[in-house]
Fold this protein.
Amino acid sequence: MVIVGAGDCGVRAAVALRDLGHVGPITLAGAERHHPYERPPLSKTTLDNSADPLPKYIVTPERLATADIRLCTSVTAEAIDRTRKLLRLDDGSVLAYRKLLLATGARPRPLPMAVGLARCVTLRTFDDALALRAHLRPGRRLAVVGGGFIGLELAAMAREAGVDVTVIEALPRILQRGVPPAIAAAIHARHMAAGVVIRCGHAITSMVENETGLHITLADGDMLMADIAVIGIGALPNTALAEAAGLTIDNGIAVDDCLTTSDPDILAAGDCCSFPLALYGGRRVRLESWRNAQEQGALAAGTMMGQHDAHRAVPWFWSDQYELGLQIAGLADEAVDVVRRDLGPDAFLLFHLAADGRLLAASGLGPGNTVARDIRLAEMLIARRAHPPRDALADPGVKLKSLVVAESPAARHLEGVVT
Protein backbone atom coordinates (compact mmCIF):
# COMPACT_ATOMS: atom_id res chain seq x y z
CA MET A 1 0.00 0.00 0.00
CA VAL A 2 1.35 3.42 -0.94
CA ILE A 3 -0.03 6.74 0.25
CA VAL A 4 0.91 10.10 -1.27
CA GLY A 5 0.45 12.89 1.23
CA ALA A 6 1.48 12.81 4.90
CA GLY A 7 -1.20 15.08 6.29
CA ASP A 8 -4.10 14.10 8.51
CA CYS A 9 -5.82 12.09 5.82
CA GLY A 10 -2.78 10.13 4.69
CA VAL A 11 -1.54 9.35 8.19
CA ARG A 12 -4.98 8.26 9.40
CA ALA A 13 -5.26 5.99 6.38
CA ALA A 14 -1.86 4.43 7.03
CA VAL A 15 -2.61 3.71 10.67
CA ALA A 16 -6.09 2.43 9.83
CA LEU A 17 -4.68 0.02 7.26
CA ARG A 18 -2.56 -1.57 9.95
CA ASP A 19 -5.41 -1.56 12.43
CA LEU A 20 -7.60 -3.31 9.86
CA GLY A 21 -5.08 -6.12 9.61
CA HIS A 22 -2.99 -5.29 6.57
CA VAL A 23 0.26 -7.21 7.00
CA GLY A 24 2.19 -6.04 3.94
CA PRO A 25 4.33 -2.93 3.57
CA ILE A 26 2.81 0.54 3.94
CA THR A 27 4.68 3.56 2.60
CA LEU A 28 3.66 7.12 3.39
CA ALA A 29 5.28 9.82 1.24
CA GLY A 30 5.12 13.51 2.14
CA ALA A 31 6.64 16.64 0.62
CA GLU A 32 7.46 18.38 3.90
CA ARG A 33 10.56 17.89 6.02
CA HIS A 34 8.66 17.53 9.28
CA HIS A 35 7.15 14.49 10.90
CA PRO A 36 3.39 14.59 10.04
CA TYR A 37 1.59 17.28 12.04
CA GLU A 38 -1.90 18.74 12.44
CA ARG A 39 -2.69 21.90 10.45
CA PRO A 40 -5.48 23.54 12.51
CA PRO A 41 -3.03 24.96 15.11
CA LEU A 42 -1.08 26.79 12.38
CA SER A 43 -3.50 29.73 12.31
CA LYS A 44 -4.04 29.57 16.07
CA THR A 45 -1.61 28.49 18.78
CA THR A 46 1.43 28.17 16.52
CA LEU A 47 1.32 31.93 15.99
CA ASP A 48 1.32 32.64 19.71
CA ASN A 49 4.61 34.30 20.57
CA SER A 50 4.44 33.38 24.24
CA ALA A 51 6.16 30.05 23.73
CA ASP A 52 8.37 28.33 21.18
CA PRO A 53 5.99 26.42 18.92
CA LEU A 54 6.34 22.77 18.10
CA PRO A 55 4.30 20.87 15.54
CA LYS A 56 1.43 18.90 17.02
CA TYR A 57 2.08 15.44 15.70
CA ILE A 58 -0.81 13.46 14.26
CA VAL A 59 0.80 10.30 15.63
CA THR A 60 4.16 9.97 17.29
CA PRO A 61 7.21 8.65 15.46
CA GLU A 62 7.11 5.71 17.85
CA ARG A 63 3.54 4.91 16.78
CA LEU A 64 4.52 4.82 13.12
CA ALA A 65 7.54 2.67 13.93
CA THR A 66 5.48 0.25 15.99
CA ALA A 67 3.00 -0.06 13.15
CA ASP A 68 5.88 -0.64 10.72
CA ILE A 69 4.78 2.24 8.51
CA ARG A 70 7.56 3.60 6.35
CA LEU A 71 7.56 7.41 6.29
CA CYS A 72 9.35 9.21 3.45
CA THR A 73 9.66 12.96 4.04
CA SER A 74 10.84 15.74 1.71
CA VAL A 75 9.81 13.81 -1.37
CA THR A 76 7.33 14.71 -4.09
CA ALA A 77 5.45 12.22 -6.22
CA GLU A 78 6.22 12.95 -9.85
CA ALA A 79 4.33 10.38 -11.90
CA ILE A 80 2.08 7.34 -11.75
CA ASP A 81 2.54 4.45 -14.15
CA ARG A 82 -0.94 2.96 -13.95
CA THR A 83 -0.16 0.07 -16.28
CA ARG A 84 2.71 -1.25 -14.18
CA LYS A 85 1.36 0.16 -10.87
CA LEU A 86 4.42 2.20 -10.09
CA LEU A 87 4.83 5.57 -8.40
CA ARG A 88 7.92 7.64 -9.17
CA LEU A 89 9.26 10.10 -6.58
CA ASP A 90 11.51 13.10 -7.20
CA ASP A 91 14.39 11.49 -5.28
CA GLY A 92 14.61 8.90 -8.06
CA SER A 93 12.96 6.09 -6.17
CA VAL A 94 10.11 4.06 -7.61
CA LEU A 95 7.44 2.45 -5.44
CA ALA A 96 5.31 -0.46 -6.55
CA TYR A 97 1.75 -0.49 -5.27
CA ARG A 98 -1.22 -2.77 -5.09
CA LYS A 99 -3.44 0.09 -3.97
CA LEU A 100 -2.45 3.75 -4.15
CA LEU A 101 -4.09 6.51 -2.10
CA LEU A 102 -3.75 10.12 -3.19
CA ALA A 103 -4.12 12.37 -0.17
CA THR A 104 -2.39 15.30 -1.80
CA GLY A 105 -4.39 18.02 -0.03
CA ALA A 106 -4.76 21.55 -1.29
CA ARG A 107 -2.62 24.65 -1.72
CA PRO A 108 -3.37 28.35 -1.20
CA ARG A 109 -5.13 30.00 -4.12
CA PRO A 110 -2.66 32.55 -5.50
CA LEU A 111 -3.42 36.23 -5.94
CA PRO A 112 -1.69 36.99 -9.24
CA MET A 113 -0.66 40.54 -8.36
CA ALA A 114 0.97 39.28 -5.15
CA VAL A 115 3.06 36.54 -6.75
CA GLY A 116 6.75 37.30 -6.37
CA LEU A 117 6.33 39.98 -3.71
CA ALA A 118 8.46 39.27 -0.65
CA ARG A 119 6.00 40.97 1.67
CA CYS A 120 3.08 38.78 0.51
CA VAL A 121 2.91 35.31 2.04
CA THR A 122 0.50 32.43 2.51
CA LEU A 123 -0.19 30.19 5.49
CA ARG A 124 -0.38 26.49 4.79
CA THR A 125 2.59 24.76 6.42
CA PHE A 126 4.36 24.78 9.77
CA ASP A 127 7.30 26.57 8.15
CA ASP A 128 4.87 29.21 6.81
CA ALA A 129 3.58 29.74 10.34
CA LEU A 130 7.09 30.03 11.78
CA ALA A 131 8.03 32.65 9.19
CA LEU A 132 4.85 34.63 9.75
CA ARG A 133 5.11 34.41 13.52
CA ALA A 134 8.33 36.42 13.42
CA HIS A 135 6.36 39.39 12.04
CA LEU A 136 3.66 39.41 14.72
CA ARG A 137 5.05 42.10 16.98
CA PRO A 138 3.33 45.09 18.58
CA GLY A 139 3.08 48.01 16.19
CA ARG A 140 3.63 45.97 13.04
CA ARG A 141 1.10 46.33 10.24
CA LEU A 142 -0.57 43.21 8.87
CA ALA A 143 -2.96 43.06 5.93
CA VAL A 144 -5.08 39.94 5.63
CA VAL A 145 -6.43 39.49 2.13
CA GLY A 146 -9.55 37.37 2.42
CA GLY A 147 -12.13 37.19 5.17
CA GLY A 148 -12.38 33.42 5.48
CA PHE A 149 -11.63 31.11 8.41
CA ILE A 150 -7.84 31.12 8.08
CA GLY A 151 -7.56 34.86 7.57
CA LEU A 152 -9.82 35.69 10.49
CA GLU A 153 -8.17 33.23 12.86
CA LEU A 154 -4.85 34.78 11.92
CA ALA A 155 -6.28 38.28 12.41
CA ALA A 156 -7.43 37.37 15.92
CA MET A 157 -4.05 35.96 16.91
CA ALA A 158 -2.19 38.92 15.42
CA ARG A 159 -4.41 41.45 17.14
CA GLU A 160 -3.88 39.77 20.49
CA ALA A 161 -0.15 40.11 19.81
CA GLY A 162 -0.57 43.88 19.41
CA VAL A 163 -0.34 43.94 15.61
CA ASP A 164 -2.32 46.52 13.62
CA VAL A 165 -4.56 44.37 11.44
CA THR A 166 -6.63 45.19 8.37
CA VAL A 167 -8.77 42.54 6.70
CA ILE A 168 -9.61 43.15 3.05
CA GLU A 169 -12.51 41.13 1.66
CA ALA A 170 -13.75 41.55 -1.91
CA LEU A 171 -17.20 40.12 -1.14
CA PRO A 172 -19.90 42.09 0.69
CA ARG A 173 -19.20 40.40 4.04
CA ILE A 174 -16.70 38.16 5.76
CA LEU A 175 -17.28 34.40 5.81
CA GLN A 176 -19.52 34.68 2.77
CA ARG A 177 -19.08 31.03 1.86
CA GLY A 178 -20.78 28.60 4.19
CA VAL A 179 -21.36 30.75 7.28
CA PRO A 180 -24.80 32.30 7.98
CA PRO A 181 -25.00 36.11 7.96
CA ALA A 182 -25.98 36.32 11.64
CA ILE A 183 -22.90 34.43 12.76
CA ALA A 184 -20.65 36.31 10.35
CA ALA A 185 -22.02 39.59 11.73
CA ALA A 186 -21.26 38.53 15.31
CA ILE A 187 -17.72 37.57 14.40
CA HIS A 188 -17.30 40.79 12.45
CA ALA A 189 -18.38 42.76 15.52
CA ARG A 190 -15.96 40.85 17.74
CA HIS A 191 -13.06 41.65 15.44
CA MET A 192 -14.06 45.31 15.32
CA ALA A 193 -14.20 45.40 19.12
CA ALA A 194 -10.68 44.00 19.18
CA GLY A 195 -9.48 46.79 16.91
CA VAL A 196 -9.29 44.95 13.60
CA VAL A 197 -10.17 47.09 10.59
CA ILE A 198 -12.37 45.16 8.17
CA ARG A 199 -12.88 46.42 4.63
CA CYS A 200 -15.59 44.37 2.90
CA GLY A 201 -16.63 44.83 -0.72
CA HIS A 202 -13.22 46.17 -1.67
CA ALA A 203 -11.22 44.73 -4.54
CA ILE A 204 -7.48 45.30 -4.67
CA THR A 205 -6.20 46.95 -7.82
CA SER A 206 -2.47 46.96 -7.12
CA MET A 207 0.18 45.88 -4.64
CA VAL A 208 3.62 47.49 -4.72
CA GLU A 209 6.40 46.93 -2.23
CA ASN A 210 9.51 48.90 -1.39
CA GLU A 211 11.75 49.47 1.62
CA THR A 212 8.98 51.28 3.51
CA GLY A 213 6.40 48.54 3.20
CA LEU A 214 3.66 47.13 1.02
CA HIS A 215 1.40 49.66 -0.72
CA ILE A 216 -2.06 48.23 -1.35
CA THR A 217 -4.46 50.20 -3.53
CA LEU A 218 -8.19 49.45 -3.38
CA ALA A 219 -10.69 49.88 -6.18
CA ASP A 220 -12.15 52.99 -4.53
CA GLY A 221 -8.73 54.64 -4.59
CA ASP A 222 -7.88 54.16 -0.93
CA MET A 223 -4.35 53.08 -0.19
CA LEU A 224 -3.23 50.92 2.72
CA MET A 225 0.24 50.34 4.04
CA ALA A 226 1.38 47.05 5.55
CA ASP A 227 4.62 45.47 6.64
CA ILE A 228 3.36 42.12 5.46
CA ALA A 229 0.23 40.71 3.82
CA VAL A 230 -1.16 37.22 4.15
CA ILE A 231 -3.09 36.02 1.13
CA GLY A 232 -6.00 33.89 2.32
CA ILE A 233 -8.44 33.71 -0.59
CA GLY A 234 -9.18 30.02 -0.58
CA ALA A 235 -7.46 26.84 -1.65
CA LEU A 236 -7.03 24.78 -4.79
CA PRO A 237 -6.95 20.97 -4.73
CA ASN A 238 -3.65 19.38 -5.66
CA THR A 239 -4.66 17.36 -8.70
CA ALA A 240 -1.67 17.63 -11.03
CA LEU A 241 -0.37 14.13 -10.28
CA ALA A 242 -3.80 12.58 -10.83
CA GLU A 243 -4.50 14.64 -13.92
CA ALA A 244 -1.19 13.67 -15.52
CA ALA A 245 -2.08 10.04 -14.82
CA GLY A 246 -5.33 10.42 -16.73
CA LEU A 247 -7.68 10.20 -13.76
CA THR A 248 -11.00 12.01 -13.90
CA ILE A 249 -10.95 15.51 -12.41
CA ASP A 250 -14.10 17.33 -11.31
CA ASN A 251 -13.46 20.11 -8.78
CA GLY A 252 -10.75 17.84 -7.39
CA ILE A 253 -9.91 14.24 -8.08
CA ALA A 254 -13.30 12.66 -8.78
CA VAL A 255 -14.07 9.61 -6.62
CA ASP A 256 -17.12 7.49 -5.91
CA ASP A 257 -18.76 7.16 -2.52
CA CYS A 258 -16.08 4.67 -1.46
CA LEU A 259 -13.33 7.11 -2.54
CA THR A 260 -12.21 5.12 -5.58
CA THR A 261 -11.05 7.16 -8.58
CA SER A 262 -11.64 6.30 -12.22
CA ASP A 263 -8.84 3.74 -11.72
CA PRO A 264 -10.06 0.95 -9.39
CA ASP A 265 -6.60 0.60 -7.82
CA ILE A 266 -6.19 4.28 -7.03
CA LEU A 267 -8.14 6.15 -4.37
CA ALA A 268 -8.22 9.80 -3.36
CA ALA A 269 -9.34 11.34 -0.09
CA GLY A 270 -9.38 14.58 1.86
CA ASP A 271 -9.06 18.11 0.51
CA CYS A 272 -7.94 16.95 -2.94
CA CYS A 273 -11.03 14.96 -3.93
CA SER A 274 -14.65 15.58 -4.80
CA PHE A 275 -17.19 12.93 -3.92
CA PRO A 276 -20.96 12.31 -4.04
CA LEU A 277 -22.59 13.18 -0.73
CA ALA A 278 -25.56 10.86 -0.30
CA LEU A 279 -27.02 12.87 2.56
CA TYR A 280 -27.62 15.75 0.15
CA GLY A 281 -28.98 13.90 -2.85
CA GLY A 282 -25.65 12.68 -4.12
CA ARG A 283 -24.42 16.14 -5.10
CA ARG A 284 -20.68 16.21 -5.68
CA VAL A 285 -18.77 18.22 -3.09
CA ARG A 286 -15.22 18.84 -2.01
CA LEU A 287 -14.64 19.52 1.67
CA GLU A 288 -11.65 21.23 3.21
CA SER A 289 -11.85 20.35 6.86
CA TRP A 290 -9.80 18.60 9.47
CA ARG A 291 -12.48 16.11 10.42
CA ASN A 292 -13.31 15.22 6.84
CA ALA A 293 -9.64 14.44 6.26
CA GLN A 294 -9.65 12.10 9.23
CA GLU A 295 -12.91 10.39 8.29
CA GLN A 296 -11.97 9.92 4.68
CA GLY A 297 -8.54 8.60 5.61
CA ALA A 298 -10.17 5.84 7.61
CA LEU A 299 -12.78 5.21 4.91
CA ALA A 300 -10.11 4.99 2.21
CA ALA A 301 -8.20 2.43 4.26
CA GLY A 302 -11.30 0.28 4.45
CA THR A 303 -11.81 0.47 0.70
CA MET A 304 -8.16 -0.41 0.12
CA MET A 305 -8.76 -3.49 2.28
CA GLY A 306 -11.71 -4.56 0.16
CA GLN A 307 -14.55 -3.12 2.21
CA HIS A 308 -17.42 -1.33 0.49
CA ASP A 309 -18.57 1.20 3.04
CA ALA A 310 -19.93 4.37 1.48
CA HIS A 311 -19.27 7.85 2.80
CA ARG A 312 -22.08 8.80 5.20
CA ALA A 313 -20.56 11.42 7.49
CA VAL A 314 -22.17 14.81 8.07
CA PRO A 315 -19.82 17.66 7.06
CA TRP A 316 -18.52 19.51 10.10
CA PHE A 317 -16.43 22.64 10.41
CA TRP A 318 -15.15 24.69 13.29
CA SER A 319 -13.19 27.84 14.00
CA ASP A 320 -11.87 29.50 17.14
CA GLN A 321 -11.44 33.29 17.20
CA TYR A 322 -10.69 35.12 20.45
CA GLU A 323 -12.89 33.51 23.10
CA LEU A 324 -15.50 32.47 20.53
CA GLY A 325 -16.07 29.01 19.14
CA LEU A 326 -17.93 28.54 15.86
CA GLN A 327 -19.25 25.17 14.75
CA ILE A 328 -21.26 24.17 11.69
CA ALA A 329 -22.72 20.75 10.94
CA GLY A 330 -24.18 19.96 7.54
CA LEU A 331 -24.55 22.09 4.43
CA ALA A 332 -26.92 25.04 4.65
CA ASP A 333 -26.82 26.40 1.12
CA GLU A 334 -30.09 24.71 0.05
CA ALA A 335 -32.03 25.79 3.14
CA VAL A 336 -35.06 28.07 2.76
CA ASP A 337 -35.79 28.70 6.44
CA VAL A 338 -33.66 29.49 9.48
CA VAL A 339 -34.72 28.98 13.11
CA ARG A 340 -32.79 30.66 15.89
CA ARG A 341 -32.32 29.33 19.42
CA ASP A 342 -30.68 31.65 21.93
CA LEU A 343 -28.54 29.95 24.54
CA GLY A 344 -27.65 33.06 26.52
CA PRO A 345 -26.39 36.58 25.95
CA ASP A 346 -23.36 35.45 23.95
CA ALA A 347 -24.37 32.15 22.38
CA PHE A 348 -26.95 31.00 19.87
CA LEU A 349 -27.77 28.27 17.39
CA LEU A 350 -29.23 28.50 13.91
CA PHE A 351 -31.10 25.59 12.36
CA HIS A 352 -31.30 25.54 8.59
CA LEU A 353 -34.39 23.85 7.17
CA ALA A 354 -35.40 22.66 3.72
CA ALA A 355 -38.80 23.52 2.25
CA ASP A 356 -40.26 20.28 3.63
CA GLY A 357 -38.92 21.00 7.12
CA ARG A 358 -35.97 18.63 6.99
CA LEU A 359 -32.99 19.79 9.03
CA LEU A 360 -30.12 20.35 6.60
CA ALA A 361 -27.58 22.09 8.82
CA ALA A 362 -26.99 23.71 12.18
CA SER A 363 -24.63 26.55 13.06
CA GLY A 364 -23.61 27.80 16.48
CA LEU A 365 -21.48 30.51 18.02
CA GLY A 366 -20.57 31.07 21.63
CA PRO A 367 -17.75 31.31 24.15
CA GLY A 368 -15.45 28.31 24.21
CA ASN A 369 -17.29 25.05 23.65
CA THR A 370 -20.70 26.46 24.57
CA VAL A 371 -22.37 25.20 21.41
CA ALA A 372 -20.41 21.98 20.93
CA ARG A 373 -22.86 19.56 22.56
CA ASP A 374 -25.90 20.99 20.83
CA ILE A 375 -24.17 20.96 17.45
CA ARG A 376 -23.29 17.32 18.03
CA LEU A 377 -26.95 16.52 18.75
CA ALA A 378 -28.04 18.52 15.71
CA GLU A 379 -25.55 16.54 13.67
CA MET A 380 -27.31 13.35 14.73
CA LEU A 381 -30.63 14.81 13.60
CA ILE A 382 -29.12 15.81 10.27
CA ALA A 383 -27.72 12.31 9.75
CA ARG A 384 -31.19 10.88 10.38
CA ARG A 385 -32.75 13.30 7.87
CA ALA A 386 -35.02 14.45 10.66
CA HIS A 387 -37.92 16.89 10.38
CA PRO A 388 -37.97 18.31 13.92
CA PRO A 389 -40.79 20.68 14.89
CA ARG A 390 -39.86 24.28 14.19
CA ASP A 391 -41.11 25.56 17.54
CA ALA A 392 -39.12 22.90 19.39
CA LEU A 393 -35.94 23.95 17.65
CA ALA A 394 -36.52 27.56 18.64
CA ASP A 395 -37.32 26.82 22.29
CA PRO A 396 -34.20 26.51 24.50
CA GLY A 397 -36.40 24.75 27.03
CA VAL A 398 -36.74 21.77 24.70
CA LYS A 399 -33.67 19.58 24.94
CA LEU A 400 -32.27 18.63 21.56
CA LYS A 401 -31.56 15.20 22.95
CA SER A 402 -35.30 14.62 23.23
CA LEU A 403 -35.65 15.37 19.52
CA VAL A 404 -32.87 12.92 18.75
CA VAL A 405 -34.59 10.25 20.82
CA ALA A 406 -37.88 10.97 19.05
CA GLU A 407 -36.12 10.40 15.72
CA SER A 408 -34.61 7.08 16.78
CA PRO A 409 -35.56 4.00 14.75
CA ALA A 410 -37.34 2.51 17.79
CA ALA A 411 -39.43 5.64 18.27
CA ARG A 412 -40.33 5.72 14.60
CA HIS A 413 -41.33 2.07 14.72
CA LEU A 414 -43.49 2.68 17.77
CA GLU A 415 -45.10 5.66 16.11
CA GLY A 416 -45.94 3.51 13.11
CA VAL A 417 -47.47 0.82 15.32
CA VAL A 418 -49.59 3.34 17.20
CA THR A 419 -50.68 5.00 14.00
